[in-house]
Design goal:
Layout lengths: L1 H12 L30 E3 L5 E4 L10 E4 L10 E5 L4 E6 L4 E5 L10 E5 L8 E7 L2 E6 L5 E4 L10 E4 L9 E3 L1
Antiparallel strand pairs: 1-12, 2-3, 4-5, 5-8, 6-7, 8-9, 9-12, 10-11
């Protein structure tokens, strides 16, 4: 797992793999003899609870709260891809809805909820991903400088995922499974 994470973070830092946004040169259809390559998807597993992060009830809609629940890895709604924006900056994009993890109303305060919302390039949808060791990563929001966090470190089903001052604790560490 550790070597996979290292390769993942190296790819993000190089602005490659993950699911780089199409450029003018790559936006056209794949050549007939080359199938399109699907982006790798992951479960986001909360470090404090072992539960997975996803939209409420697997909703595909804008505004669905991001929370922790049982890991339903066979459902696209519980899988995510990291779209590289260059360096270690990514969008966290839901594989089922193609919507991004978004800090509600671009808030900058502690405790502002995260939702899924149509990806729009806003800094409140951009996350710096950092290797925290032992297979864990941290996501720091570009707009607020705060980290993705399981609210109050709760370990129960349905606990919301919000942003909070970065402190490096287990509620702010996530595994890509």
């Amino acid at each position: 797992m550790k070597s996979r994470l290292i390769r993942l973070l190296a790819a993000v830092a190089l602005g490659g793999w993950l699911a780089a946004a199409p450029t003018a040169a790559t936006a056209g259809a794949a050549a007939p003899d080359q199938p399109a390559q699907a982006a790798a998807t992951f479960l986001l597993v909360a470090g404090n609870s072992g539960l997975c992060v996803g939209p409420a009830v697997g909703s595909p809609h804008d505004g669905a709260a991001i929370l922790q629940d049982h890991c339903n890895g066979h459902l696209a709604a519980w899988r995510w891809e990291l779209r590289s924006l260059g360096g270690n900056l990514v969008e966290i994009r839901n594989a089922g809805s193609d919507r991004c993890v978004d800090v509600f109303l671009a808030g900058r305060d502690n405790g502002v909820a995260t939702i899924q919302y149509g990806c729009n390039g806003g800094f409140h949808q951009h996350w710096f991903v950092t290797d925290k060791g032992d297979g864990y990563v941290e996501f720091r929001n570009r707009n607020s400088g705060k980290c993705l966090d399981v609210a109050q470190g709760f370990r129960h089903l349905g606990a919301p995922i919000w942003q909070w001052d970065c402190h490096g604790g287990a509620p702010q560490r996530f595994k890509l499974g």
